[in-house]
Task: structure prediction
Amino acid sequence: MNENEKKAFEAQLKSFIGRPIGPAMTGRDPVNEPMIRQWCDAMGETNPAHLDAAKAKGTVHGEIKAPPTMLQAWVMEGWAMHEGYDEPKNEQHRLHKFLADHGYTGVLGTNTEENYTRYLRLGEKVTAETVIAEISDEKATGRGIGYFITTRTKFWNEQGEELGSMSFRVLRYKPPAEAAAAAGGSQGKDAKGAAVAAKPTRIKPPMGQDNGWWWEKVAKENVLPIQRCADCGKLRHPPRPMCDACGSQKFDSIAASGRGKVHTFTVIHYPQFPGYDYPIVSIIVDLEEGERMASTLVECKPEAVQIGMPVELLIHQDEDGFKIPFFRPAKRG
Amino acid sequence: MKSPIHNAAAIAGIGQTAYTKKSGVSELALATEAVRKAIDDAGLKPSEVDGLVTYTMDSSDEVEVARAVGIGDMTFWSKVNYGGGAAVGLVAHAAMAVATGMAKNVVVYRALNGRSGQRMGQGVSGQIISSDLIHWSWYMPFGLLTPASWIALQAKLYMHKYGATVEHLAHVAITQRMHAQNNPNAAMRGKPMTMDDYMNARMICEPLRLFDCCQEDDGGCALLVTSAERAKDMKQKPAVIRGVTQASFEGQEQMTSFYRDDLAWLPEMELAGKIVYEQSGLGPKDIDAACLYDAFTPEVLMQLEAYGFCGRGEAKDFVTDKSLTLGGALPNNTHGGLLSEAYLHGVNNLAEGVRLIRGTSCNQPDGVEHVLVTSGVGVPTGAVIFGQA
Result:
């Protein structure tokens, strides 16, 4: 999709917000003992207030009540609801088909929230209406890029008395293989020639004149370069185009010994970006040469890292071939 | 020696929108509402405004705001760089303009859909940065992508060096949350926080838990800056600028000044303090209340030291002594701050500084003569001291 197509797509997507998925639906059967028993069996619920009329009489309810968490069960369509996705029968089907047709073929229920106004009595008929309440902006998730869709459902009985409500959120996403295909088929092929999902990768450094040479040296020479003023010899990191001591713009570099100490660190838990392994032990290293740099500590449990601990260089290579200088705890001796 | 900027300019109006998680309107709409309210608050007409200042990060350009609000001829405008570090810089630019006659009445503003639009906490990526892309390239590949991750590195060392603990960070967060309970405009009103709530929140970047990090919000906030002389005849009690400065210290980077000798210290804040104290002839003992920039709780501890409210490494004892609340040595962020009122990039902290001088804070301490307000931490920053007319 180009920018204009994307805009049109998103406008059409967002036009679903606020639409009821269809007319209100009433459950096929009123609240009844056999369904309660089935449900309790399946869920391992043994509370006699739901199962035994004689014992329920002695409870505060005085009669059998349906378990509150059964609320949605009274209006569920059963297997038939799955048949709607190819030939949409309601707005929810249409929304999901619209996204699937645009490559967002993955679907993942993420969370639900239910509110119960009161216990349901035997014989009540439950009606529900569901509205497409929210559609997020496009999000990058661990599963792939996609949209979170939230529906809200209200439940009431035949007298119009409110029984409860529910919100349900699903992620509709582009599995990485589809995303790569859509972006021009940049995914790899496995031995049999089948498409292999392109795994998300870390954000690469944009290569400019002032930093590109540094990353090239890492990649080609497997070293950690430190920029050095070609005139006065002062070291500097991160690289900059001028020496702040003598004003020279000429530079070369040395290869760091790779020995250093942790100056400070943090353990990054959240937010988590695709292409990185969490938690990340992020460190500022005092290099033996006197310069400092930001890097990542690997081969070390997060709880084991300490300020001042000796570390050593490790040129890490990602699956896509990108090389980056990491550190690990220094070996003894 | 007192500076020519001393007592030359004043804040005569403040304006703010509701602070929400989803404004439902454009950032320009928020900017114009805040600017218009600041002008109304000062009792002026839009046509009397001849200057505008905002953030380089703000999406509402000066002439767009001017056309929408009905501001006519303008002779001064500028934009200040470095995220939240810009906040006080806005006031500094406007104060210079009115002090030198470049403009008469300047409105400074910041408006953002910081929650429903581009979120700060989502971090940097190749898409949203341009000129300083190379700078970020030294951090992005390593996963150092968010403000919390950059600040955590400094906070860890600070706490290690001085023995400050998460309980000390919690004091800052809990005190400001308590302040927000009296603030009708605070996003965190009605959500008081206990030590358990704080400790049970999820870890973001060690040692920072969720409530060590400020919120993300939608909203706009603006201040009207005019000469101290003209301010006397306007509608509100003026907050006179005793001293104001921007400050960037040797070795400064944007959020990543990791290469200086002492990472457990904020030298740009120390510099800002030195300058505003010199300009005003005042010292830390003369400051009755403060709005110390609070995107993250450890920043408040470190600023207490940089501005001389306590010695180096002593902030942990200062905060546990109830010093940051009403009746304490330095009531701080009495509106709730960025942590508990809203993240308006620090301009809302400036507005609270003005209210403290007016005597209209939702948590008003007695006898406030001077208030210190600071800009973003970890970035090129600034400080201002407001005083009574």
Remarks:
- Chain A touches chain B at residues 202-206, 208, 210-211, 237-238, 263-271, 273, 276, 280, 282, 284, 291-296, 302, 307, 322, 324 (CB under 8 Å).
- Confidence is low (pLDDT under 50) at residues 184-195 of chain A.
- Helices of chain A lie at 3-14, 33-43, 48-51, 53-57, 91-101, 176-182, 212-221.
